[in-house]
Amino acid sequence: MTVPAIEFKPASRPLSAERREEVLTSPGFGHHFTDHMVTITWTEGAGWHPARLVPYGPLPIDPANLTLHYAQTVFEGLKVHRRPDGGLAAFRPEENARRFQASAHRMAMPELPVETFIAACEALVRQDRAWVPSRPGHSLYLRPFMFATESGLGVRAAREFLFVVIASPTDGYFAGEIRPLSVWVAEEYVRAVPGGTGAAKTGANYAASLMGQAQAVAQGCDQVVWLDALERRWVEEMGAMNLFFVHGERIVTPELTGSLLPGITRASLLTLARDLGYEAEEARISLHDWRRDSADGSLTEVFACGTAAGVAPVGSVKTALTQWTVGDGRPGKVTMRLREALGEIQSGAAADTRGWMREMAKAGHPGRPADR
Ligand SMILES: *Cc1c(COP(=O)(O)O)cnc(C)c1O
Question: What range does the domain containing 283 cover?
């Protein structure tokens, strides 16, 4: 598979270094974007071309654009970290590329080759490398996405798509002190159904989740927890993060049933936990067990995980009928150990023994732009 050459048309006037530094002091999450983006068009017959790196900016959209009406769109999220040796490395980008293909397949969209996905991310990171934060815990969040660009109101898969990568400096999703999350268990609404699109990273799943999240906030909670759609009994995930249940030295995460998102952080933590000597497994976990095991003390910690927020402790649970605390309601030691271990691999403070970090701004990169 050949990777289309990326044509470079950089911004004639990128943000000044002073303004950029101001943004990097306190970037938040998803508020600020770098100077450029990469776009690749796909059309039936012609495939993936042309590929361009252009100034970040609005995309023209026809009122009859198929995505606006029928939501044929998928996305990814991955982070690039500044390393002590000056390198800029992404965490397991090949996994994001593969999941992007799986999501696209489910949504009847073309599958972007893994190498092209990575080349597009690399081109953007290399061009906008001054935007990769250097403060501890901060990183550059990449948001690759793809949507139908064809117009028409007939319901069918489009024959024309645009793949875009944008980048946003971030200090993390739940930045600041580590405050355990309170969660609301949605029993009225569901996020995903068997045979549906729950395992695809697609906008429609998020639209379906917003009422549940709004209820969680109305109940005074931080996040919503989803149950399976059929029995409303099995715990699936929390907001846009996967969940882990800690029983002393044993950690368990809900098994992939097809209606929850197969998180890369989730998969990585299963591996990392075993490396650290914990027993780690995937199983079905019921809401009933969550409550019972919290009450009898056998469930010692619960945490959520995902690219945007890393590892976040869950301290309390609320349902329409009851509420309870997990452990002592404070961040647990297994949670914090895994959080640190993952963070250290990403920041370069610990050895990357599994080859999870991929350098993204190598010199001599194909189609490399002028240094600046
Ligand atoms: C992206 C996402 C996750 C976490 O996946 P990571 O690869 O770990 O970032 C979990 N749940 C949902 C619904 C998601 O969209």
Answer: 181-347
